[in-house]
Amino acid sequence: MLAVMSLEKRAYGVAIRDELEQRLERDVSFGAVYTTLDRLEAKGFVSSSHGEPTPERGGRAKKFFVVEPPGLEALKQSRRTVDAIWAMSPIRGLK
After folding, report:
1. Are 67 and 5 in contact (CB under 8 A)?
2. What pairing do the DSSP bridges indicate for beta strands 61-67 and 46-53?
3. pLDDT at res. 89
4. CB pairs under 8 A, 24+ apart, for 66-69?
5. CATH architecture of the domain with range 2-88
6. What span, in angstroms and rounded, lies between the C-alpha atoms of 88 and 76?
7. Residue 20, number of CB atoms within 10 A of its CB
8. DSSP labels, the chain
9. What is this structure's pTM?
10. Domain residue ranges of the chain, discontinuous segments joined by +
11. What is the pLDDT of residues 2-61, one digit of tens each?
12. Strand partners, 47
């Protein structure tokens, strides 16, 4: 969801995968991206819409994604959980 948010209006499958690969510094499969997006959409965390068909895509439209309020709340809760776990750690200042 963070990749979707960082891409803003440009968040579609290929761009999301590229963003993840760049930030994670490892390969990410299209299958993993689309499966995750489908699951997030089923939970109401993201929504999708289709753009205009383009000739370079053989007349197919891109499917764009946006994080919805429940997704943003899930991200915030996840961050709070990670922060709480780190606060318990005897390792301070590790980055």
Report:
1. yes
2. antiparallel
3. 80
4. 66/4, 66/11, 67/1, 67/4, 67/5, 68/44
5. Orthogonal Bundle (1.10)
6. 19
7. 18
8. -HHHHHHGGG-BHHHHHHHHHHHHTS---HHHHHHHHHHHHHTTSEEEEEEEE-GGGTTPEEEEEEE-HHHHHHHHHHHHHHHHHHHH-S--S--
9. 0.84
10. 2-88
11. 999 999 999 999 999 999 999 999 999 999 999 999 999 999 999 999 988 877 777 788
12. 66
| Residue 93 token pair | 């200042």
Closest CA to 32 of 45, 16, 44, 47: 16
Reading the block at residue 73, the tokens are 């709340």
* Placement of tokens 């922060």 in the chain: 83
Q: Which amino acid is at 37?
A: L
- Token pair for residue 83? 């922060």
